[in-house]
Specification:
By secondary structure, this protein is an all-alpha fold. It has helices at residues 15-40, 45-87. Helix 1 (15-40) packs antiparallel against helix 2.
Length: 88
């Protein structure tokens, strides 16, 4: 199990924010990867879809989503620090 960066409990981001950011992250991948696969790898629609999904899912799961959660936690912690510093 991964160790947390700090001892503070991690807040779960809003589901609507995650859905929106996932949508924004998927748009360029879904727009650019299938035509690239069609041009350089195969002209068969089934193989284009299969290879594109095989590329997009790991990119979203292992690159984009972890970076997105890290960024959300980082910026929400910074905002909390700023708010706390202003009130003290």
């Amino acid at each position: 199990m991964a160790k947390p960066i700090s001892n503070k409990p991690e807040k779960r981001p809003n589901k609507h924010l995650i859905a929106f950011l996932t949508f924004v992250a998927l748009l360029p991948l879904v727009y650019f990867i299938p035509p690239w696969v069609g041009t350089y790898i195969s002209n068969d629609h089934f193989w284009i879809t299969l290879i594109s999904v095989a590329l997009i899912v790991p990119i979203i799961s292992y690159v984009v989503m972890p970076m997105m959660f890290y960024a959300i936690n980082y910026f929400s912690a910074k905002i909390t620090e700023l708010i706390t510093a202003k009130t003290n």
